[in-house]
Design brief:
The chain has helices at 11-19, 62-75, 97-114, 167-176, 178-185, 187-194, 205-214, 227-239, 254-263, 282-294, 330-336, and strands at residues 28-30, 39-42, 46-54, 80-91, 117-126, 133-143, 158-162, 219-222, 242-246, 276-280, 299-306, 312-316, 319-322. It is α+β, with helices and mostly antiparallel strands. It is globular.
Length: 344
């Protein structure tokens, strides 16, 4: 018996399992594959997009959070989120009416923000869990000529990322390790870091819409569990290419860096919803960055797509190193460890 680490399944195992899901339906344009954010189903004049994601860490406002991350998967395919469904599981012996009212209220609030509708799902109190869990599913649409996947990157393309890395990780640790963060950096720092859920925010919907409208994008993928390193690997493997990224060009917020130092965490492997990876030919890059900037999202060139035989590399100073892979997300690792004082 082989025990699996927390987090996403190992890539080789996942690829093996997905290969067994034979799909005999020509309407499935994008099916289950490593690195793809959603399924795309041919509906004649457009593609229907289907995505599903649970909330497995411990953030506040998990109903709002579930809508955001599922909407991101639709947006990362170039589409518009439209309909949300949720399965809400509440822990036996701890569930209260106030708890479920808050979760459903947050779902409704997030749907209003994004212009989608909560259309159904299931809610129950159950044993075997120690906290509320929300598993969401989002349905969306995209015009056929605007569909984007993780598999379109071409050698010579530039690699871009929006906002900065580890936005989600910063907010989670500021919430779940609030006492330690306050002791190390003060109340205002903790409050601002916890607020990363909304500023700079977890949504990639505006950035995606701007990028699609600008044109020139060859691949798009949002950063989630496993951090930017995991997301870059997924794009490289889906597109069957290599990459060279410059570590010093990867944008990081000051608060994220301080929290990473405090918890001895590598931001490259920390969950990072809110950041969007894009690839585009070099001549399209300037207009793409400008288009996203007009919608309030900064974007940064961090590297270039190369041929597969060159590998997936990170330049650190004068060294070229393999881009790291993380078997467990860095936030999950930190939360599994006992709390420590500032000097430990």
């Amino acid at each position: 018996m082989t025990l699996l680490p927390d987090g996403k399944l190992p890539v080789q195992l996942l690829r093996e399992l997905l290969s067994r899901l034979a799909i005999d339906d020509v309407r499935v344009k994008v099916g289950p594959a490593v690195g793809e954010d959603a399924a795309a189903i041919d509906r004649g004049d457009h593609y229907l997009l289907l995505a599903a994601d649970p909330i497995t860490f411990l953030p506040q406002r998990i109903g709002w959070y579930a809508v955001q991350v599922n909407a991101n998967d639709i947006a990362a395919m170039g589409g518009k989120p439209q309909y949300f469904l949720s399965t809400i599981l509440l822990p036996s012996g701890e569930a209260t009416e106030e708890m479920v009212r808050e979760i459903l209220s947050d779902i409704a609030s997030a749907c209003r923000e994004l212009g989608c509708l909560a259309v159904g799902g299931h809610t129950e109190v159950t044993g075997g869990i120690d906290r509320p869990i929300v598993a969401g599913a989002m349905v969306g649409e995209v015009e056929k000529d605007k569909l984007l996947t993780s598999a379109g990157a071409q050698p010579g393309d530039m690699v871009l990322v929006t906002k900065g890395i580890a936005i989600e990780a910063t907010a989670i640790l500021a919430q779940e390790r609030a006492r330690e963060v306050r002791e190390s950096f003060g109340d205002e720092f903790q409050k601002k870091s916890a607020g990363f859920l909304t500023d700079p925010g977890l949504s990639v919907v505006p950035a995606s819409a701007a990028a699609v409208e600008a044109g020139g994008v060859t691949a798009m993928h949002d950063v989630t569990e496993g951090g930017i390193a995991g997301a870059l690997w997924e794009v490289a493997e889906a597109s069957n290419v290599g990459m060279v990224v410059i570590e010093s060009e990867i944008p990081r917020f000051w608060e994220s860096t301080k929290i990473a130092e405090r918890f001895r965490m590598d931001l490259l492997g920390a969950i990072g919803s809110g950041a969007l990876i894009l690839t585009a030919p070099e001549p399209a890059t300037e207009s793409l960055i400008a288009a996203m900037g007009e919608k309030g999202t900064d974007a940064f060139v961090i590297g270039r797509v190369v041929s597969k035989d060159q590998g997936v590399l990170m330049v650190r100073g004068k060294e070229r190193l393999p881009l790291p892979r993380f078997t467990t997300d860095e936030v999950g690792r930190v939360l599994s460890e006992p709390a420590r004082g500032p000097s430990e």
